[in-house]
Amino acid sequence: MTAYARSKVASEQSLSELAGPDFIVTCLRFATACGASPRLRLDLVLNDFVASAVTSGVIKILSDGTPWRPLINVEDMARAFDWSIGRDTSNGGTFLVVNAGSNIWNYQIRELAEAVASAIPGVTVEINKNAAPDKRSYRVDFSLFASLAPNHQPQISLDQAIAELKSLLESTRFSDANFRQSRYMRLNMLSQLIAGGRLDANLDWVA
């Protein structure tokens, strides 16, 4: 549905032509990332909700809250990378495309907002009931990943992810309720790098 998604599929198709015994390719189709990290991003749905809760006490859902999103914590993404780097051809072949995440981490947007509100006292959730339907709604089957990588399955719970995000934001005294205009949003950072001459129009680093 988006240029982003189409570019990912095109990359997979190109990589498939290079795959072989000497170049094993694993394409991890990750669920939506979330969680605390040294290079924090707040343009991710759960991270956005926690930041909103901490800075303003209000979570505003722009849709009607019904779209589905699978999530995966950044630590669990690292576990999947570790598995993919070490796997051999007996475990998925020379070229593999696999959804990386967990079936129990398929949530509706409003469920995520309610979970954050439950974890942080005094937070209210506002839902735009008049919003147009969000077509980017998807539940994902991660059964193949579970069978291929049983020892590298996601371990971080939703409650733990929320608690770690809250702790990080509070420990750094983060209070910017206008964070969507900040450097913690990927598009804002790319725009800054382009404006500063560090990236060109193709998003290549300028020497």
Order of helices and strands, N to C?
Answer: HEEHEEHEEHEHHH
Q: Would you identify the regions where 5 or more consecutive residues have pLDDT less than 50?
A: none
Helix content: 25-40%
CATH architecture call of the largest domain: 3-Layer(aba) Sandwich
Explain what the structure shows.
The protein has 207 residues and is α/β, with parallel strands linked by helices. The relative contact order is 0.19. It is built from 7 helices and 7 strands, in the order αββαββαββαβααα. It folds into 2 domains: 3-175, 3-Layer(aba) Sandwich (Rossmann fold), CATH 3.40.50.720; 182-207, no CATH class. It is globular. The strands form 3 sheets. It has a 3-stranded mixed β-sheet. Strands 1-5 form a two-stranded parallel ribbon. A two-stranded parallel sheet has the order 3-7. It has helices at residues 3-16, 45-56, 74-86, 109-119, 143-148, 158-171, 186-195, and strands at 25-30, 32-34, 58-61, 68-73, 95-100, 106-108, 124-127.
Please write out the topology:
Layout: H1 3-16, E1 25-30, E2 32-34, H2 45-56, E3 58-61, E4 68-73, H3 74-86, E5 95-100, E6 106-108, H4 109-119, E7 124-127, H5 143-148, H6 158-171, H7 186-195
Parallel strand pairs: 1-5, 2-4, 3-7
Antiparallel strand pairs: 4-6
Helix pairs in contact: 2-4, 2-6
